[in-house]
Structure formats: structure tokens, C-alpha cells
Write a structure and sequence with these properties.
- It is a single chain.
- The chain is mainly beta.
- It has one helix at 3-10, and strands spanning 58-63, 69-71, 76-83, 89-90, 96-100, 107-109, 112-115, 120-129, 135-146, 151-165, 168-182, 188-199, 202-215, 218-226, 231-241, 244-253, 257-269.
- Strands 10-11-12-13-14-15-16-17 form an eight-stranded antiparallel β-barrel. It has a five-stranded mixed β-sheet with strand order 2-9-8-5-6, with no helix packed on it. Strands 1, 3, 4 and 7 form a four-stranded antiparallel β-sheet that branches.
- The longest helix is centred in the first third of the chain and has 8 residues, at 3-10.
């Protein structure tokens, strides 16, 4: 090789390494180990969210509780908590849905709200569909919604009889047990009673039935007397409230037998059946 050729070869530039470029000509940022780093300097992008915090979670209804009573037309508080496996509380407001056994058209979503329920004895269920695919549920039973005065009332029936026979006045009192039921809407009170009294040497058996309409805690209706061979209706009025029912009536039977009756009852249960 001539001296001129060797001189030219010695002066030619050498390429040390090739840089990787993208289609735009920019230089790719290659992280340690040859893994492409994301824009935030994080690790590998797997393309899937991490919902492992929901693994082993539990759902609990805090309110209402089993056996709770709520007056009609007043809101019922609905509260549920979703707990992680370590006991910490997880956000779940849009994950929990509610339903009731009484009305299939009623439903709600959330973990802390107030809503009204229809009259009835409810089984309330809450269901949480978690992002990890798990479904959790919790149910409370015997949640009663009805009028605040509704229920079963028991107590005494007392009827005073008076009659004048051959110019001599006679009186007697008939006492018996009575039961009335105020319906779940607090609109009616119905029931019955019976008693037996001795008057002028005769035992007088009296059966009564009662039918009241309720408005603003006032009772207005009828006391119906059944003597087997004769039945008569008498106007009766009364009051209702604070777990007590009182009613009274007075009239004359067949023009010669005067009487005055009253009911004095207390509520013993919330049952309306």
C-alpha cells in the first residue's frame, strides 16, 4: 500500500456505538435492566389496576338494626361500612346497594343516607360489588315501619247499667277484658269485648264490637252491643296517644235501661295483625 493510501485511511472517522431512536428521531429512554420507564419514572406498566386492598374485605350494616322501629313518614338512617382485611375502612359509597323485602321497587345506593320506607316489617339487605370481583352482602330483619300509635291495645271494658223497676232504682256494673288493634297507618281502631252482669235477678251477657276512625289522635265511631237476640249501635268517641286508648259512650236501651260505657286500654305490642 502506498504511503498516500495509508495516510488517508488513518484520517477516516470511526463510529463507536449506535443510539436507538424512535420514529420521530428522538432518543428512547431506556431504564435499568432494559425496561422502558414510564413518564413518571415508575416501574413497568402492566396495564391493570391494583384492587388488592379489597381482598378479604367485609361489609356491615350499622343502621337500621334488626328489630328497630321507625314511625311512618319519618326517615330511616341507612349506614353501612366496608372494612379491609386489616380492619381499616374502605371507601364504598358507590359500591353498596340496598333493597327491602316489602317493596321490590325500592332501592338505594350509598353508605350513609336517610330515606323513607313503606309500611311493613322489612328485611333490609345491603350488597357491595367490589372492584376485585367479590360480592359481599349483609341483611337485618324485623325492621318495622308504621304509625307511631299503631299496635295492639288491651285493657278493661266497664259498663254501668241503671234501671228503675216499680219505682225502685237498680244499678249494676259489667266489667270485661277488651282488645283493640290500631292499624299500621294509624287510621282505624277495631276490636271487641264481652261482659256479664246480674240485674233484677237475671244474668245479662253483653258482647261488644268497636269500630273507630282516627284523625289527629281523636277516635270517632261506634260501640255495637250484641245481646244475641238484639243488636244496637251507639256513637262513641275517644282519644289515642302515648301508648293509651280511651273511649266512652252513653245511651238508653229500649227506653228503660240507661247505660254508660268506657274503654281504658294500653298498648302491649306493635303488632297490627
Amino acid at each position: 500500500m502506498t504511503a498516500l493510501a495509508l495516510l488517508l485511511l488513518a484520517c477516516e472517522p470511526h463510529i463507536v456505538a449506535d443510539l436507538q431512536t424512535d420514529d420521530t428521531g428522538g432518543v428512547d429512554d431506556i431504564g435499568d435492566g432494559g425496561v422502558e420507564a414510564d413518564g413518571d419514572g415508575g416501574g413497568a406498566d402492566t396495564g391493570a389496576e391494583d384492587f388488592s386492598e379489597y381482598d378479604g374485605a367485609t361489609l356491615e350494616i350499622v343502621s337500621p338494626g334488626s328489630g328497630d322501629f321507625y314511625p311512618l313518614d319519618e326517615g330511616v338512617p341507612f349506614i353501612a361500612h366496608l372494612y379491609a382485611a386489616d380492619g381499616s375502612e374502605l371507601p364504598a359509597d358507590d359500591l353498596v346497594t340496598w333493597s327491602t323485602s316489602v317493596d321490590s321497587s325500592w332501592s338505594a345506593t350509598g353508605t350513609d343516607f336517610v330515606d323513607e320506607l313503606p309500611v311493613g316489617v322489612h328485611d333490609i339487605s345491603a350488597v357491595a360489588d367490589l372492584p376485585n370481583g367479590d360480592r359481599l352482602g349483609w341483611t337485618v330483619g324485623d325492621v318495622r315501619v308504621q304509625h307511631q300509635d299503631a299496635g295492639t291495645y288491651v285493657g278493661d271494658l266497664m259498663v254501668d247499667f241503671s234501671i228503675e223497676y216499680k219505682g225502685v232504682p237498680y244499678t249494676a256494673t259489667c266489667i270485661g277484658a277488651a282488645t283493640l288493634i290500631v292499624d299500621a297507618w294509624g287510621e282505624t281502631a277495631v276490636g271487641d269485648s264481652s261482659c256479664t252482669t246480674s240485674l233484677l235477678g237475671y244474668d245479662l251477657s253483653s258482647d261488644y264490637s268497636f269500630d273507630f276512625v282516627i284523625e289527629d289522635a281523636q277516635l270517632d265511631g261506634e260501640a255495637i252491643l250484641d245481646l244475641t237476640w238484639f243488636e244496637s249501635q251507639f256513637s262513641a268517641t275517644g282519644t289515642l296517644g302515648d301508648g293509651e286508648l280511651h273511649a266512652e259512650w252513653a245511651d238508653s236501651f229500649m227506653g228503660f235501661l240507661d247505660f254508660a260505657g268506657e274503654l281504658d286500654l294500653v298498648r302491649i305490642s306493635l303488632d297490627t295483625e
